[in-house]
Amino acid sequence: MYCLSFCIAICTYTSTGSSRMKGGSMTKILMDSIFLLAIGSVFETDLLGLQSAECGIEIRSQTMQGNISTDIDRTMKNLTDILVMYQNVATITYSNTNITQIADLLTLAGESLSYPDGHLYILGSQSFGVVALIDCSEMVDTYGAELDEVRAFIKDGWKACNTNTGDLYGLGKLFHVSFEDFDKEISSYLRPQDVVIVVSQEHTLHQSLADRICSSPAKCALLNMQSYNDTHLHVDTFEQWMYVKTIEIPHFSVCGVPLFGDFALKIILNAITTGANIMKGRVYGNSMINLTVANSK
Description:
42% of the residues lie in helices and 14% in strands.
């Protein structure tokens, strides 16, 4: 048994409410690192080094060079590679090439929420949909947003979330989170002040739903999460959409599970929804000013 210690630097917040960006991101990095190390230990393998070229970025593990002779050596090499990879993913995601695309979506979302009755809807499938659900769920507690102001929807609904509590559809409309729910309950009522962002993961939407969103008065945007080794992107479904933003991210998978794309999407959506609420006027002097005492916490 051996112990790994992480030191998290405490610093001032660039924008208020960004603790969810740092705390939540660090939690994901820690959990991914723990389970990736376990995989590396079981299979006695160098997790990332052999495939770093496929990710489009280079891993530099300055602290572990030479032959790997012990389990501890392998663990420390894998840990260093994982943490360096996450650092590089964050750098690439917020690079000059991508930041303009993110800023455009942030502005679009902020302009929507600036209307008294504007709404932001984010749609995604599989793990991207889960990331969107988590991000949007934080708006009420963090900024005092209305319950239906910023919402996310995921393909196949609660089934895709694989939660311990099962299907929460019966708890009310705010728990209607599938694409079918969006199509039946929202798509026909979209207005010019609304914004719909679809996070693309191959064929995320059926053509019919994509067409209905595109033909609505709302502003529709595609956030195309393109991995470096993806040569067959399916953006033809969205060719008539108003905004198509492509973000290049590294791609790597362990046992068929894609990594780093979820993290990249998390920090992108964090930036969009944080910036949108600042534009809404819910921050003054870097303090959140729209909150009330609303729960026992």
